[in-house]
Amino acid sequence: MTWDILNIIGTLAFAISGALIAREEDYDILGIYVLGFTTAFGGGLVRNLLIGIPIENTWMQGNLFQLAFFAITLVFLLPNKWLDQIKNWIVFFDAIGLAAFAIQGANYAVSVSAPFIAVIIASTITGAGGGMIRDVFAGRKPMIFHSEIYALWAALAGFAIGLGLVRGPYMTAILLILIVFLRIISVRFNWNLPHHIPYENKRNLGG
């Protein structure tokens, strides 16, 4: 049940996120659906390839494809005058998708007895993969590499689950809310990982 719920939450959130960015970039109807679907299913597809889930399992998610189609269609039908008001929601839906899929990826890696580092990698790739593919398709610099702390929160989910600190639906829900909260406040307060070591040239004060 937890797997299914996380799948639904992550798929809907990322489908909406991808479609909103497509609207923001003024894509046509085909571009909106392509970006919505690739954002919703891209991270899971990469995860499946990495940890050995049969690739055909991706296409056996008819209900999720229908939910994603419905969500993308709603975004497509939004009046332009509403678009500016909901642009801030892109971060919110992206954070939900990141958290839900990161937890799902970590849980699956644990279920197949993957080593600890593989749990963290599966969590990070599943959580951030869809957003990375979305940004590339939208012609943007992927957030995973530069934006306010992003992939680190997905890795944190994998770290907690890999250590066995999160068990059962209640702890999973708390972890999901925590990851969403951390992602949103990292955007709000512009938290970033170091981009470089800020060496400073020493002035020669000698005569």
Question: What gap, in angstroms, lies between the N and C termini?
Answer: 75 Å
Report helical residue fraction: over 70%
Helices and strands, in order, run as: HHHHHHHHH
Assembly context of the chains: single chain
User: What's the main sheet like?
Assistant: none
Radius of gyration (Å): 18 Å
Number of strands: 0
**Mean pLDDT across every amino acid position:** 84
Number of helices: 9
General form: globular
Please, could you describe this protein's structure?
The protein has about 210 residues and is mainly alpha-helical. About 75% of the residues lie in helices and about 0% in strands. It has nine helices and no strands. It has helices at about 1-25, 30-50, 60-75, 80-85, 90-110, 115-135, 145, 150-160, 170-190. The longest helix is centred in the N-terminal third of the chain and has 23 residues, at about 1-25. The radius of gyration is 18 Å and the shape is globular. The mean pLDDT is about 85.
